[in-house]
Amino acid sequence: MPRLMIGNEAVALGALDAGVLLVSSYPGTPSTEITEFAAKDTSRHVEWAPNEKVAAEVAVGASIGGARAMCCMKHVGLNVAADPVFTAAYTGVSGGLVIVVADDPGMHSSQNEQDSRYYALSAHIPMLEPSDSQECYDYCRLAFDISEQYDTPVFLRLTTRIAHSQSLVQRRDALEPRRIPYQKNTAKYTMMPAFARQRHIQVEKREDRLRADCSESGINTVIPGGRQGIICSGAVFRYAKEAAPDASFLKLGMCYPLPDELIKRFASQVDELIVAEELEPVIENHVRALGLACRGKELFTVQGEYSAAMIAKALGRKTPDFDAAGDLPARPPVLCPGCPHRAVFYTLSRMGLTVTGDIGCYTLGAAAPLNAIDCCVCMGAGVSMAHGMDRSGTVDASRTVAVIGDSTFLHSGITGLLNIVYNKGCSTVMILDNSITGMTGHQQNPATGKDIRGQEAPAVNLEQLCRALGVRDVATVDPFDMKALRECIKGALSRREPSVIIAKHPCALLSKEKHTPMRVTADCIGCKRCMGIACPALRFEKGHAAVDASLCVGCSQCASVCPKNAIVKETP
Question: What is the block-wise mean pLDDT of the chain (572 residues), using blocks of 10 residues?
């Protein structure tokens, strides 16, 4: 019986039904739920790794050992995993190896719009791209078959809309998981130069086979229609089909390598050839390289998500009755009521410090009225950038603080801190420990004491870890005690040595207790000092502050900044 499910769930079920034995990932929107759904099957090994590189290496090891394996990540996570992934293209596989990468056109939760199809091209790894949840399920199963048939890792590329949109999925009979007996093969799996040169030859031969076979395999399909021909894949196929229902379509289920002969045949059957694809002109460039005339990015943008209305307008067709984007008001993300990070950012902003930021909930400290974060590039970069500013001589280290979350510190902040110690820096690093991986939806990490299924696991002691890296000045403080927090920061900045402040308080959403909300008394003078902490539970009306009791969690941060003590706990 078909069931409605999001693409991420369909990928997870496709992998389980394909006999996957190991899934290792690091959470990253929009890919996170794949691994969470897979973890519901307790007969398979599913884990959160500290970062995407480790996850990919674990999956590669399982594959070489003879098990079907999968790792999942968002597009920027593939940057982190690129080192093992590129070389795994040379080693090939024993058990099937699928690497799921979720791109984010429109940057709903990302710092860039990179196009992961270039990774497939550069690494010489085939890439499949589903256009709905059923294809997420089918293509995931197919990816494992292709992996073993052609001795290669296989990319499965999603985008945000495919990952999180729902459509019906019909499952097929599940395969019994199998373990291929491990056989030592040094020349295949040990990539020293002498062996790697020989494996590169095999990679090129494999790619030639794939390019020839994908023209006839059926994963790339021609849908006959009018004399206008549109080449597309993934979510764009659904949009384009709605915008131009009478056109002919070449729907690409495999977006790398591309089916040269099939593209040529399709082009010969239409009067006008159009390539519609989100982000970069990957398909368009290939079509032009085949010597075929087409229109692409002169009609469409390289930025953001497409829609049926946008494609119809670009093609000069009648616009569909609705446009999902519309003129809806913007709803930027904000720190939740009771978020412990809020006190940190309020304090840093009031102190007028330069703050190098990092990826996660703490990027929200850049928004007004907190205005605390000066820069944010990628996971772990805040730590290293603070050291770079210090060593450049352009920014005073005694006025600079790096902020990073507990999960992100374990992901890629440790080496940055080690670099500060090793190179005799004196930067101050604040680890905002909210006891969870927050922004992606409360996933466990090596510091929480629980694994992906909530079972007890060894917990990293962040204070001891920092001391082991050579940092002598390590302090832990509750950020809700703003006075103590401020004094701790001032003390760390005054000492000319590396320092770490662990601002430790659980994420407000972890508590299941009933909260007593705050209230504003008649002593409020309307100074708006409390509005500076940017809490969604606070509002200003009729010249005075007010508390929305339905949102307030009673954290008292607003009371801490009120000069008249006019914000108090509501009487239970």
Answer: 96 98 97 97 97 98 98 97 98 98 92 95 98 98 98 98 97 96 96 96 96 90 96 96 95 96 96 96 97 96 93 86 63 87 94 93 88 93 94 86 96 97 96 91 92 95 98 96 96 95 93 85 93 92 91 92 90 68
Report d(CA 437, CA 390) in Å as an integer: 29
Return the H-helix or E-strand segment holding 166. strand 166-169
pLDDT at 328: 72
Query: What tokens appear for 212 in the block?
Result: 């020839």
- 445 Ramachandran zone, left/alpha/beta (phi>0; psi -120 to 50): beta
Q: Which two tokens stand for residue 162?
A: 């495919």
Cα–Cα dist 336/361, whole Å: 10
Helix axes 414-422, 381-392, angle to 10 degrees: 20
Long-range contacts of 463-467, Cβ-Cβ distance < 8 Å, separation of 24 or more: 463/500, 463/502, 465/414, 466/417, 466/431, 466/500, 466/502
Q: What is the DSSP letter of 411?
A: I
How high is the pLDDT of residue 325? 53
Q: How would you classify the pairing of strands 3-6 and 166-169?
A: antiparallel
Do 246 and 264 contact (CB within 8 A), yes or no? no
- For residue 88, give every residue at least 6 positions away whose Cβ sits within 8 Å of its Cβ, in sequence order, or none: 56, 60, 63, 97, 153
CB 251 within 8 A of CB 234: no
pLDDT of residue 230: 98
Token pair in block for residue 314: 């670009």
Per-residue tokens: 376 = 């944010």
pTM: 0.93
Of the candidates 434, 538, 366, 551, the residue with the CA atom closest to the CA atom of residue 566: 538
β pairing state of 22-25 and 3-6 = unpaired
Amino acid at the residue 418 = L
Query: Tell me, what's the pLDDT at 322?
Result: 56
Burial of 61-91, coded b for 16+ CB within 10 Å and e otherwise, reads ebbbbbbbbbbbbbbbbbbbbbebbeebbbb
- Encoded amino acid at 57, one letter: E
CB distance 468 to 500 below 8 Å: no
* Two tokens, residue 127: 């890439």
Rounded-to-integer distance, Cα 478 and Cα 504, Å: 5
Backbone conformation region of residue 71, classed left if phi is above 0, alpha if psi is from -120 to 50, else beta: beta
How distant is the alpha carbon of residue 69 from its chain centre? 20
CA 382 to chain centre: 18
Beta-bridged to residue 229, according to DSSP, are: 248, 273
What whole-number distance in Å separates Cα of residue 362 and Cα of residue 348?
12
Give, to the nearest 10 degrees, the angle between helix 52-64 and helix 75-91.
30
Q: What is the pLDDT of residue 361?
A: 85
* Sign of CA pseudo-dihedral 160, 161, 162, 164: positive
pLDDT at 323: 54
